[in-house]
């Protein structure tokens, strides 16, 4: 396995006592897969992503990439957030180069590498534009190009399309599938959008809440991955099964607290 999460739990100390956010999380991800973790608020999705990114450490358990335990952030993991986190005073080229600059990559090399990935995401002609001159979808493409420019082994995505309108989101979904197929990069994305997860991923980990646990692993086999597949009965079956699972566990979580 390429990305391994073993018996991971995360607790936080609060005034009310010990808060268990994640409990006994186990996931196995092969190189080149597109994996989504789906759950409602309170399922610990963002906390889980922070453990993989090395931005936080588990209370118990561990995360490994290619057999190496993660203890801190590293260039082997690229991160894309919901809000684009672009620097408004930098143009598209400069934003894309920024991570490479922090790594000490020489100017000529980082310019070439950033330019290559701007071409991959279709934004070469906007290289000198400022973020304020771009649409929401274009800003997110810049953020993706910046993450890819460091040539990470894994692309981590934190609800990256949650702030986009429906039409732009659909366009970005098709863009991501094309990008994934062309680069063969491993992608791990968290989302609360069930249809998004079914459309994009090879496999889905459904997370229950309070504490966040893996309730089900679903393998997704669609006949094709274009927007028309959303009208296909197999897409509806996956979506309905996942929504019912999350709804049922959401009710159980509420009942446990009541």
TrEMBL record:
It comes from the Bacteria. The keyword Transmembrane does not apply. It is a peripheral membrane protein. GO terms for cellular component: plasma membrane. Keywords: ATP-binding, Nucleotide-binding, Transport. GO terms for molecular function: ATP binding; ATP hydrolysis activity. CDD domains: ABC_NrtD_SsuB_transporters (cd03293). InterPro entries: AAA+_ATPase, ABC_transporter-like_ATP-bd, ABC_transporter-like_CS, ABC_transporter_ATP-bind, P-loop_NTPase. Residues 3-234 form the ABC transporter domain. PROSITE patterns: ABC_TRANSPORTER_1, ABC_TRANSPORTER_2. Gene3D superfamilies: P-loop containing nucleotide triphosphate hydrolases. It is found in: Cell inner membrane. SUPFAM superfamilies: P-loop containing nucleoside triphosphate hydrolases. Pfam families: ABC_tran (PF00005). Belongs to the ABC transporter superfamily. Nitrate/nitrite/cyanate uptake transporter (NitT) (TC 3.A.1.16) family. This is Nitrate ABC transporter ATP-binding protein. It comes from Chroogloeocystis siderophila 5.2 s.c.1.
């Amino acid at each position: 396995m390429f990305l391994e999460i073993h018996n991971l739990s995360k607790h936080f100390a609060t005034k009310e006592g010990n808060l268990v956010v994640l409990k006994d999380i186990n996931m196995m991800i092969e190189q080149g897969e597109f994996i989504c973790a789906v759950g409602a608020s309170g399922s610990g999705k963002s906390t889980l992503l922070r453990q993989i990114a090395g931005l936080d450490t588990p209370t118990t358990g561990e995360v490994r990439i290619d057999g190496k335990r993660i203890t801190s952030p590293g260039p082997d993991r690229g991160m894309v957030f919901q809000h684009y986190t672009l620097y408004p005073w930098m143009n598209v080229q400069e934003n894309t180069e920024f991570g490479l600059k922090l790594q000490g990559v020489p100017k000529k090399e980082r310019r070439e590498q950033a330019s290559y990935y701007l071409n991959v995401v279709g934004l070469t002609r906007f290289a000198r534009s400022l973020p304020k001159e771009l649409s929401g979808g274009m800003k997110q493409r810049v953020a993706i190009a910046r993450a890819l420019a460091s040539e990470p082994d894994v692309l981590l995505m934190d609800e990256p399309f949650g702030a986009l309108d429906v039409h732009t989101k659909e366009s970005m979904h098709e863009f991501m599938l094309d990008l994934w197929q062309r680069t063969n990069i491993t992608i791990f994305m968290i989302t609360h959008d069930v249809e998004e997860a079914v459309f994009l991923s090879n496999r889905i980990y459904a997370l229950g809440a309070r504490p966040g646990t893996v309730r089900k692993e679903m393998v997704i086999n669609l006949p094709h991955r274009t927007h028309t597949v959303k009208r296909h009965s197999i897409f509806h079956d996956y979506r309905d099964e996942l929504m019912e699972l999350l709804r049922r566990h959401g009710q159980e979580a509420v009942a446990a607290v009541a």
